[in-house]
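Here is a typical protein record:
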Amino acid sequence: MSYAIARQPIYDRENNVVAYEVFLRRKDKPEEYPKEVEFSKAAYLITDIITELGFERVAEGKKLVINFALETVLNKTIDILPFEKVIFNLNPPEVPLGEILYKKIVERLKEIVKEGGEILLNEKLYTGKYKDIFNLANTVEFTVQNVSKDKVNTLHSYKKKVMVKRVESKEDYEKSYELGVDYFEGVYLASPELIQEIELAPFLKLTLLRLMSALSASKSLKDVAEIISSDVGMTVRFLQFVNSAYFARRKKIEDVSHAVAYLGLENIKKFLLLLALNDFVKIDKPELWKKSLIRAHIAEELVKTRYPELAEKAFLTGLFSLLDKILGVDIPSFLRELNIDDDIIKAFTGENKPLADILRIATELEEALSQGDEKLEEVAEKLSEKLGIPAIELVIIAKDAEKKAEAVLKI
């Protein structure tokens, strides 16, 4: 799946371009937002595309306006942006915000402002409920239909600027101008222009790198819990993961710290990888992601009894085994870019024979599994003689791997 990035200029009262708002668009229909991408995820895709292209190439000396659902500002992936050159267009949250979470968002916004970032407040947040955020805002935006002289005057009295969007006619512009609006955006002034198409693969690389780097930099389970808790979306997915059929728990876990302690670092590493990959399962080639997950779980179980130290590497080898078909990449080269352990890379070049053999066996079992019980039992019998593992045990390993994969893909 490919996406495009587009930008639309924002003008001041003297008709000067003061900033560009950046949008995510479909490759095949550049005028449309890709409906398969949740609004909260669009900001991260846009951030990665801007990073890939270079900020200045997109901004051309202006500031960039990027839309964020309120809770998504807590995600540390946006730290890669030069805050002093970004206007954070805050939109209503997509998840319920409790008092603690709201306070964290306010503190985060204070940090952003301290580092030079500007806050553009969507009109739906222009209420007493979000007073703390309003105080941090530079500008409030309205649609042409909802702006009024009273609102403009009130905001100016608080030393806030006013922006109108969806200026679609001369009448819209003249009405807004007469009301004293400071900034204008809409197709009457200029339509969005396509900047660049980009494949999903670069986003996947950056996501994996950041998640893995964040985990490797942590020195304790407490640090890991804090990283996860800092992102609403990740917290929700993490608790879904730990309470899913994957672990078949009797008692539900509702606390991130408890969940982290329960899982341990190795399982959390898997979760982060699965989370990153699972974002793409919903978009493209889910059958191949499922096959990869099955191979990963089979490979992990095969080495647990004799070579437990290889369990994690065996899992990752299986997980990455179909990236060439999913993303159209050369697997060893792609994994080198991800800074993946060299032993895993060598499994794909044939230099690491033990892992290469495990992957071959896991692949045989996974492919047999997809052809039905009779084929699986036949392949298990053949492999049993070579491995010295009872055929029934190999069948159980394969079927359990399928159940685990299906449980993860439902999260």
